[in-house]
Design brief:
CATH architecture of one domain: Sandwich
Number of strands: 25
Number of helices: 3
Mean pLDDT: 84
CATH class of one domain: Mainly Beta
Helix content: 25-40%
Radius of gyration: 55 Å
Largest sheet: 21 strands, mixed
Amino acid sequence: MKQIIRTAIIFLIGLITASIAAYFYFSFTTDGKDIRQLDPVSLSGKEEAFITAISGEVYILRDESIISAEIGEALYAGDIIKVVDDSFCQVQFSDIAAAKIRSNTVIKIKNIFNLDKTPDIKTEILTGSMLYRVNKLSEGEKLEVKSADRIFSVRGTTFLVDRNSDGTYLIVDEGLIAVSKEDETVESRSTAGGEELYIATGSETETLSEISASNKRIMEETGNINIFSLDTQNTALIQTALVTVPSDAQIYVNGILSGKGSYSGLFPKEEELTFLVRKRGYEDKVLSVKAITDLEYTIYLDPEETTENSLNRERIKNTEENNLDRLRRELESRTERLEEVERLIRELKEKNSQLESDSSSWENRIRKMTSQIQELEQVKTDLTSEIDELSRKLGESTSREDKLRELIKQIQDLSVSDDE
């Protein structure tokens, strides 16, 4: 019977523990978001090029068709990719390069492989900007980017090409890029890491300078450009997607702005990701996940408190801070006063100790002086007695002397009288 009761108690404790764990798990993992299972992205490992991340609206113009791009979408030579406003797309070419096609950009993939399957990647920017990350190329491998009448040849680097109606910017973060003209009438030159090159439309002039601060910030976006191994046996890629409510909230992936409203990307299995969703007038929301299975998260932002509530909270906060400052000042004042009082007490104790020492010394002196006074008083008394006695004796002697004088006088008088 005791064994049954013990088993029942253990079972109840386990049930309660599991319930509490489930409550906290779902509270922390589903609060403010919905989760939906996604179909895995199937890659054969033989893709020439494919989309690894996407946000917003991206379209592929292939032959005479317009295709809405999706994550994992295979790309081919001749494809034109159009990225609309507030959108972006990331493309991997074989396993040697990846490019982030930024907002309001149109590019054309002119070539990916030669007939012998050697990478010979050629893209052309028709308008907009594109960030590239390129692994070090092996012998025979090539990567070129065309913008207007210039061709940028790469050996292994991180760079950005930005083309608009005024001209083309080449911004090189690291590595070395050869710059030549399509018709080869202009002598080729090299642009190194930390430099930016500007070529005005229709001009032969090339202006080289150090990368500006604003362009350095743009180059930070390369931190989220991954080049995945296409060895499908050893590399598992997991799709992680995000949808925001409101639909125009900004999405940051591992600290880098990566889209607005929606985002989907491929990541190595077990990679830890941090998403920040932000919109003015709403409270920020952070989602930390590990890429274990293909999931889509819908994030709901909560509006910030009203201005009045915010002001009230600020007033309360200021009042509390003022009270805290006042109490802190009073505490400091009391502490200083206490230290002063303690110092005075120490001084008084020292003086009292000195006085007690001095008092003991003076008492000894007083006793000695009192004894001396008593002795002197006794001497005085003795002297007074002696003086009185001497005065008495002197008086008696004087009286006898007077009497003797009187007697002598009488005798003299009698002697004179007889002679007559």
